UniProtKB/TrEMBL annotation:
The keyword Transport does not apply. This is Galactosamine-6-phosphate isomerase. Residues 9-126 form the Glucosamine/galactosamine-6-phosphate isomerase domain. The keyword Membrane does not apply. It comes from the Bacteria. Keywords: Hydrolase, Isomerase. Pfam families: Glucosamine_iso. GO terms for molecular function: glucosamine-6-phosphate deaminase activity; identical protein binding; isomerase activity. One of its GO terms (cellular component) is cytosol.
Length: 134
């Protein structure tokens, strides 16, 4: 589906690097439901964890789509998006309001062997500083 983080990662990382499907665990972004969460959780377990987790830091400080103030979830889950996240330029191309998303939980992220946190845009400078310096 257009307007998803998954599409962004495919276009800007997966395709340019020539990564194969068997090297990835990615979301089926058109399927935001508990079955998709279970599929991703099972894939992570079957592969023995994540070697690399690539995710973004949002303008409001969300990590992946783990929104600030939300109760922290350990595993893949469906997140209700903050009003500010819903206004993100990427989501405007979806052709409909996007109010929730699927994301890894913090345990999934922190258990990855390596984490690549993408922070782009000048308006995220404060979030970046707060995140990296407490």
């Amino acid at each position: 589906m257009p307007g998803t983080c998954e599409i962004f990662l495919q276009q800007h990382i997966v395709q340019p690097l020539g990564l194969r499907e068997d090297q990835l665990i990615s979301f089926r972004s058109e399927e935001i439901n508990e079955t998709e969460c279970e599929r991703v959780t099972n894939l992570i377990a079957r592969k023995g964890g994540l070697d690399l987790c690539v995710l973004g830091l949002g303008k409001n400080g969300h990590l992946g789509l783990n929104e600030p103030g939300e109760s922290l979830q350990p595993a893949c889950h469906i997140s209700q998006l903050d009003a500010r996240t819903q206004q993100h330029e990427m989501l405007k191309t979806a052709g409909r309001p996007v109010t929730r998303g699927i994301t890894l939980g913090l345990k999934d992220i922190l258990n990855a062997r390596e984490v690549l946190l993408l922070v782009t845009g000048g308006r995220k400078a404060g979030c970046d500083r707060s995140f990296s310096h407490g």
